[in-house]
Amino acid sequence: MRPLAARIASHASAWWQLPALRKLTLDNRSLEEVAAGVYNYADGFFGPDQIWDEILAALREVRALQPRYIIEIGTNGGGTLLMWSRVAHPQATIVSIDLRGGQQGVRVSRLRAPLFRRMGLPGQKIHLIDGDSHRPETLDLARGYLDGNPVDFLFIDGDHSEQGVRADYEMYGPLVRPGGIIGFHDIAVNTPTHQVTKLWHELAQVSRTRSIIGGPPACGIGLLYP
User: Is position 87 within any domain?
Assistant: First the structure.
C-alpha cells in the first residue's frame, strides 16, 4: 500500500482537477482521447485495470448502444465507471457495486466514493453500492435505483471465481433487456483466482457473443447480446 501522505496527495490532486474531468466528454474529444484522459487523469488516479485495445473496442460497442441504465459489478479504481459514463446517454443512471476488501482487485475507499458520485455528466445519476453483489439485498438495492427500468448494459468484473461470476450472471443477467449487452472481463485469463473463461465458453455455445482479445498480454472482454 502507498504511504498515507502519497495517498492524500493523490486524492487532493484528483479533486483539484475535477472541473477539467467534467469537460472530458465526447462533445469535444474523440473516444480515444477520452479513454486516454481517463488513464492519465491525476497521474493515473483511476487506473483502469484494462488492456487498451480491449476496452477501446468495448467502449465503441457501448457508445453505439448509448445506454440509459447501466449496472457495473466491480468498481475497483473507478476507471471503467468513468468510461461508461462518457459513452452512456446524457441522462443515464449508472449503478456500480463493489465490496470493499471482499472481491478481486478492489480499491474503493470512502475517500474515493464522493468523487465517483460527482464525475458523471451533468444529467447523469451515479449510485454506488458497497456490498456483496451475491446477496439478495444488494440486488434489490440495485433494482430500486433502476426504478423499474430494464438494464441496457451490464458489466461483470467483480468476483472472478467460477462460482462468483456465474452467480453475478444468473442474478443480474435477467435485468438486461433484449437488445442490450452483457460484458464480462478477463475471459482470456485462466488461473486459480480467475475462472471467467469456463462460463464464457458455455455462453458462447448458446448465445450470440463477441470475444475481444487484445494484447499481448490479453485479459479479454466478452460481450453477450441477449
Answer: yes
What's the CA gap between 119 and 105, in Å, rounded?
Answer: 21
pTM: 0.94
DSSP letters for 144-201: HHHTTPPEEEEEE-S--SHHHHHHHHHHHGGGEEEEEEEEEE-TT--SSS--HHHHHH
Tell me: pLDDT of 106 over 70.
Answer: no
Q: Kindly state the cell numbers that stand for 86.
A: 462518457
33 domain-assigned: no
Is 11 domain-assigned?
A: no
Query: pLDDT for 124-170, tens place per residue?
Result: 999 999 999 999 999 999 999 999 999 999 999 999 999 999 999 99
pLDDT tens-digit series, residues 7-51: 788 888 999 999 999 999 999 999 999 999 999 999 889 988 899
Number of folded domains that form the chain: 1
Contact 86, 120 (CB under 8 A): no
Domain that residue 99 falls in: 46-225
Q: What's 125's domain CATH number?
A: 3.40.50.150
Does residue 27 lie in a domain region?
no
Q: Residue 2: is it exposed, middle or buried by C-beta count within 10 angstroms (0-12/13-18/19+)?
A: exposed
